[in-house]
Amino acid sequence: MRTRSWATLVGLSAVVAAGCTSGSGTAASHGDRAAGSTGGSSEVPISGTSTAPGGGELGAPPAVRVAPATPADTSRRPVIGRVGATPALICDSVCHLPAGAGSLVLHVEVTGARQAEFFQVPTGTNTAGLRRSIGVDRDGRGGWSVRWAYQDQPLLAHVTVVVRGPGGTAEALAFTVTHPEPEPAAPVGGTLVRDWSTDPVSSPVDIIGATLVSVRSSARAGFDRIVWEFRGGLPGYDIGYGEAHIDAGGRVRSPLGDADLPVTFSAATAHDQAGRATVPDPNGGGLPVLREYRIVGDYHGYVFYALGLLRTVPFRVYELSGPDRLVVDFARR
């Protein structure tokens, strides 16, 4: 059961040099720092590491009479105490950000510091160089703190703190946070044909002479979407995972991605009576899950599309009118 409690944290070594590759959050300037905020606060005692500037130990001065380097003021070496968040977070093995977009104040108790900076660090390995700054406090008036504005996006990351002072730098892992994936939004006014599943879906031919006039795709919160728009009604269709499409010339038309999803429209065309294409930009992709889509056939009253997905994922199907559209959403989870 989740509880509001202290979590035991460990000092950073190589992890703190890592960076953030997932999730969301915008870096806050000092002007957005919210020291002395009221409300609940979740805090955790941490243990960190501190080093002299440049790392290692300072060497002895040379025997000859030259001006030796001034040693760091070790009495001012930063010491990190407690790290917390306001409002308080619910923590078990990780700390949970509330659903939806929001903000909270991260704060740290530290002595001997001139600035404190918080970072997002992705979980996992080999993340060096991808760290993302959450915010930095350069004066510490009222306590060292920054405001973190996080977005409504999935997130699993470490929160780390780096403090710097005249005597060196101290680094520590604060806690690990997670944020739920938002609920995918349905298209306005659409009729749900089939909810999330990996099973194939089809619709019979109800009209003759539908013409494809537009194809577009977009990345949404939690899923990727592709929309086919028709003039003259919505044709029949068949959508399902399977083998790569083989065109009229016997060529295998396999798009990018590890999962092939052929789509066939019946009693439809993608050209006018003069043979000119009616879709200005029929191909695309480059989304997190929908890696590629392209038209691979337009003949004998059929329009064929080949979709390439990152992997086999559930999809749902909507039909819309005014104009006539077929919408397919691909889940990222």
Keywords for this entry:
single chain; 333 residues; mainly beta; seven-stranded mixed β-sheet; six-stranded mixed β-sheet; 25 strands; 47% strand; disordered N terminus
How does this model look, in words?
The chain has strands at 42-45, 49-51, 79-86, 90-91, 95-96, 102-111, 115-122, 132-137, 144-150, 155-165, 168-179, 191-197, 201-203, 210-220, 223-231, 236-239, 245-246, 252-253, 259-266, 268-269, 284-285, 290-299, 302-309, 315-320, 324-331. The chain is mainly beta. The strands form five sheets. Strands 2, 4, 5, 7, 8, 10 and 11 form a seven-stranded mixed β-sheet that branches. The protein has a six-stranded mixed β-sheet with strand order 12-24-25-15-14-20, with no helix packed on it. The radius of gyration is 28 Å and the shape is elongated.
Q: Which H/E pattern describes the elements?
A: EEEEEEEEEEEEEEEEEEEEEEEEE
Per DSSP E runs of 2 or more residues, the count of β-strands stands at 25
Can you count the helices? 0
Q: What overall form do the CA principal axes indicate?
A: elongated
Structural class designation? mainly beta
Please indicate the percent range of residues in DSSP E strands (runs of 2 or more).
Answer: over 45%
Question: What is the percent of helical residues?
Answer: under 10%
Radius of gyration: 28 Å
What is the mean predicted local confidence, pLDDT?
78
Give the CA-CA distance, first to last residue: 24 Å
Unreliably modeled segments: 1-39, 44-72
Biggest β-sheet description:
7 strands, mixed
